[in-house]
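Hi everyone,

Forwarding the result from last night's run.
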Amino acid sequence: VQLVEIEWSDEAIASMRRLTNSGGALSRELVRDLRSRFPDARLFPMYGLTEAFRSTYLDPDLVDTHPTSMGTAIPLAEVLVINDAGKIADVGEEGELVHCGPLVAQGYWQDEERTARRFKPAPVDSGYGGTAVWSGDRVRRDEDGLLYFVGRRDTMIKSQGNRISPQEIEDVVIGSGMTAEAIAIGVPDERLGQAVHLVVRAEAGTANVRDELPKYLAKELPNFMQPQVIHWREQMPLNPNGKVDRAQLSKEIIA
């Protein structure tokens, strides 16, 4: 997001050859904006884990047709999608991303408890075996073998009996063109289980956004995904990696 908000000189834009990411999944709108801002640069969307360096990448030639995909495993990485039954997920079925192979770290330094939670034996279908990183990220694989991010297991929202990926809501909000950043959070609610709260930073220069965004979402989102509250921010808290600190936002809102 920051890349497209910076004022770049014509010389800098002309010299840009490659763009990549390794944090959160890119939205369709961000891909469009990056393409527009840096027309001569090749875009390499990537997915990575601190515990295993990089896991997947998307061939730049596929970005226009599959802008929200994480792609396929990088060399020497085996990336499996494991469903809730512990089996390889079917095409289109949601499951946990598990990274196997020689890029996997040995664990967290002097933290046996966290290591035991994240570093576990590889699934029986792994070609590498040994220890794998169980990411906690929910993904799905399409018929072409391309992976798509669904959401973090620990950030999924359960409201009115429905299991909601925050990214589904966030993508619609960003797609409105009214917001620069959006985070959906589940807040405990006696009636709903969890209520959807939305934290947004408005796009600069957008008029009447506080009135227009709820109207837009009422048309674009099903009832069970509608935010009960929208929190407006001029700035979002960032974690040490420079990404929006979802945990901090959740703590502030629930407190």
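The chain has seven helices and 15 strands.

Cheers,
N.
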